[in-house]
Description:
13 helices
Amino acid sequence: MAAVVWHTLRPFSLTVAAIPVVMATASLAASRTVDLPVALACLAVAVLLQAGTNAINDAEDAGTGADDVDTAMPALSLREGWVTPAGSRAIGLACLGAAAVIGLVTALAVGRPWLLLLGAAGVLIGWAYTAPPLRLAYRPLGELVSGLPMGLGIPVGTVAAQSGHVPTAVWWASVPLVLLTAGILHANNARDREHDALVGKRTLATRLSEAAVVTEYRLLTAAVPAVIVAGLVLRGLPWECVVALVPGALALQAAATARTGLDARQWTGLLLRCVKLHLLTGVALTLGLLLGAIS
Length: 295
């Protein structure tokens, strides 16, 4: 049973939720305000929100036919028939419920009840991302409602829960994660745009021309090193974060790879590159923030 649940949560994607927590916590090292138990609670909340969203997303896509195409990437447990869409939905709701409980306890324990609003928004978006009536991912809102909550909401909530303030470096370091999170979803939607249009999933990629779809991917990825450079020049990031320009260069390579005429397999490759870039960029920024704290 545990293995079925694990594969229902699409574990390979959970780094996208975990990395913002780690990066944000590292930003507090300079002010010596890291609270490890609270950081771990934030990590649990973030991962559970992402896991729950994944499971509900797969359940809803199975019902609408959005995943009835060979290029789709639903959870292994659904592909193999180990769990039904209803079972996947139940697992997703359990994850969102657990995230809500941990978030509630944490917000009250640190004496910042206003964080409950941020947590409630995360749970609501996790449910409404593909579930009716909102089905946010079925509208031209997917990149926005995935990139901002995960790339910005998680880091801001993490540092606010631990210290009550948000360092300038967190705002700067969050933007590349917002861009890459949006890039992951955009590559997914670019790959599935023709089938999505047939089943009524009106993502931004279905509304744009093929050339515009490619341009959006290029902008999202190429902007990553540009933001890092701006943060360094304007001293919003410690100079040690220059190490993040290494994955930034890889982001430029990904941007150059995108072109019209790509097939589903090639778009899947660009999607996976964005996942890896998100991980590498987050780790590099974390390292830079920690080095800046001890220098």
